[in-house]
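We modelled the chain as a single entity of 571 amino acids. Its sequence is:
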Amino acid sequence: MENQIPKPFIIVLALIQGVLLTLLYQSVEQSVWPATQPIWLTSLATFAISFPLLTFLCITKINGKEIAKYLLPFCLLLSTLGGYIGLQLEPIKFVNNDSVLVVFGFTALLASFKALMYIQQYMRNQPITYSSLFSLSWRNFIIFGECWLFVAIFWGILHLGAGLFAVVEIEFFQQLLRKDWFVIPVLNLAFGFAIIVFRNITHTADNISTILQTLIKFLLPALTIVSLGFLATLPFTGLNTLWKTGSGSLLVMWLQALTLFFVNAVYQDESHERPYHPFIHRLIFIGIALLPVYSIIAAYGLWLRVEQYGLTIDRCWALLVWLLLTCFSFGYLIGILKKRDAWLETLSKVNIAMGMVVLVVMLLVNSPVLNFQNLSAKSQLARLDKGLTTYEDFDYQYFGRSLGRQGYLALQNLKKELNNAAPDKVAIIDRMYINTLHRSKENFTLANFKTLVTFWPQESEFSTDLIEAVYNKATEHQWSGFDNNSYYFLATDLNGDQKAEFVIITENNYSTSANLWFHSEGKWQSKYMPSHNPAKVRYLKEQIMENNVTVIKPKWSNLKVGDVTFKAPIN
């Protein structure tokens, strides 16, 4: 193995990857292309990460052509899907959709490991068997994990050294570790070096794999007993007890998934050798045959949720995972019904086929075919069109918080319908999509502030210095979210002295608050006014424009004892 690994090539490729990732990182820091176009950024970053990493795990001195033939097209496909994910981040001024990047990273990693083990088999010109795929997948995963552990320790040593040099007032290394042009290439070189080391001692990965499989071998009977015990008690407890947990379907699918994983780890050989005593083997045999029961239970729970509340991203994932688990479970059941105790002969065929299915599905969830954000948006809008939910109960925040670009586009179209039916909801939508990329007082001028203000009864009631004082207060903190608010300036006599008091109401999608502003000690000051808003009204503009503003005298007067004043708790 050692003389087959092209060490110079791996080091050079690691260095090239480090330079490319550094350039991409600097484009983000400096807000230049390709960072200004997420489609290009995610596409280029996907290729710069995936192709070298997968190459590191399988390159030898004799398979360069095969890598170009199989691995390069896969990474280009992955990069194209990365571009589509980048599209989901636009328009970048209004959409915050970081969650889609996390999902893409996880699914792309899973798809890459699945594709790699099939590609390695093709390059070896050997028949594809589940036992060989299992061995390759565990070896790749363990070597990959060992390399990252090495890089983490290496990075920690560098930081330790920088700290020691800082103590003796030599700042060079401390400053150097802050430079991305140094850190990223060095860590990539460390990863390449780790690849060379751990691929030369693959027996360590195989030993770790054996240890883990041994642990799983002892855990599988315990898990099977829990599974069968749960099914035995279910007729007496009923499903309602399970649904009361709020996560009944999730628990059932976790039990099903762990059972399938453990079974595959223990019975990955195609031989008829049984790793357990016949009684335990028969017990596991029964547990596997009953796995489709869990699919039926989970399907019922998911159907209830979707029927009641429609599709969401979480439910789309739950349905997808349920479908994959169900295919595995029924595949094993069919093998058991046909082969009885010799059902292990079908295990390999089912796992090889389902491995390809999982690979394809992990790619499709990052494509227009299975865009869960789009499916969720359409499902929720369909419920609104059918009258299953009202404009008042519709979850606008979910569209902005979880559905990214698809939620943004859907709400922009919905605004046309809401202009007449529920104009207050239009204001809520507009507040959700504020350009916060350059949020600062310098970029948010007084003129911009006044576009968010409604004056009552008229603007001339308020002095320029008062408006500036409110503006300064609203923009004193960059994180305050001042541009997500609506401001209502009200001038009305609150104490009966024939002079107007100035009340400034701040309203956003989450709260409505008010402050009384007054001129004292040569400057404008404010005091918070407690509010009572049981209906959680978030749109006062119509009421103010219709002059629906009144002054109510308190029902309870204050009590004063000497210099101490007591306010009634209810007014």
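As a brief sanity check on the tokenised model: The chain has 21 helices and seven strands. The chain has a mean pLDDT of 90.
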